[in-house]
Design brief:
The complex is a heterodimer of chains A (112) and B (116).
Chain A: E1 3-6, E2 10-14, E3 19-26, E4 32-38, E5 45-51, E6 56-59, E7 62-67, E8 72-77, E9 86-93, E10 100-102, E11 106-111
Parallel strand pairs in A: 2-11
Antiparallel strand pairs in A: 1-3, 3-8, 4-5, 4-9, 6-7, 7-8, 9-10, 9-11
Chain B: E1 4-7, E2 10-13, E3 19-25, E4 31-37, E5 43-51, E6 54-57, E7 64-66, E8 76-78, E9 87-94, E10 106-107, E11 111-115
Parallel strand pairs in B: 2-11
Antiparallel strand pairs in B: 1-3, 3-8, 4-5, 4-9, 5-6, 7-8, 9-10, 9-11
The chains are: A mainly beta (112), B mainly beta (116).
Chain lengths: 112, 116
């Protein structure tokens, strides 16, 4: 069956550490993968997009990798801060026609 | 730019009633989407549109209808509301990138709908 799984429902880390979130998918061959941040009661906000021919993408303290062989993307937040606490969602265009599928999200809590 | 706006913010419907959720974007984006998000879950795509006059079903279209008569507006219609349609509904838009693939989606603030 086709599905998108994010590694855990919740992740708790200490301020200053690196948070690593995982997005695994099966039976899709997406041309790109996106990561979003969602705060309670708000709509998701786009963070990064990585294409199938890109191994890694960086933006400030954020880093995303994309392994199309493993069908996995890793999302890293370095030097994490309490303000990074939110739910992070990965999303795929499953048929390269804008039919978007989201993972259930990982709720990250960064403790001071 | 206001971005993506949705109305209403909250609504309570009785079983069997109908309503239209409004979505407007002022970024001249071709692509627009409707999602629903149940508590603790990710977003599920209901319908999407790649341009005025063109709509396609997503993952969970049953019980909903859409239309896209203009670039700016993408209303979602609920006919015969059911308790299973209790959810938060998000509208989103995006522009196109190379080879027709879309860039990031911009989301509205959501409509919280309860059907009792």
């Amino acid at each position: 069956s086709q599905k998108i799984e994010q590694n855990s429902e919740a992740l708790n880390i200490q301020e200053g550490k690196t948070a690593t979130l995982t997005c695994n998918y099966t039976n899709y061959s997406p041309a790109y993968l996106q990561w979003y941040r969602q705060d309670p009661g708000r709509g998701p906000v786009f963070l990064l997009l990585i294409r199938e021919n890109e191994k890694e993408k960086r933006k400030e303290r954020l880093k995303v990798t994309f392994d199309t062989t493993l069908k996995q993307s890793l999302f890293h937040i370095t030097a994490s801060q309490p303000a990074d606490s939110a739910t992070y969602l990965c999303a795929l265009d499953i048929a390269n026609n804008n039919d978007m599928r989201f993972g259930a999200g990982t709720r990250l809590t960064v403790k001071p | 730019n206001a971005g993506v706006t949705q109305t209403p913010k909250f609504r309570i419907l009785k079983i069997g009633q109908s309503m239209t959720l409004q979505c407007t974007q002022d970024m001249n984006h071709n692509y627009m989407y409707w999602y629903r998000q149940d508590p603790g879950m990710g977003l599920k795509l209901i319908y999407y549109s790649v341009g005025a006059g063109i709509t396609d079903k997503g993952e969970v279209p049953n019980g909903y209808n859409v239309s896209r008569s203009t670039t700016e507006d993408f209303p979602l219609r609920l006919e015969l509301a059911a308790p299973s349609q209790t959810s938060v509904y998000f509208c989103a838009s995006s522009t196109t990138g190379l080879a027709g693939t879309s860039y990031e989606q911009y989301f509205g603030p959501g409509t919280r709908l309860t059907v009792t």
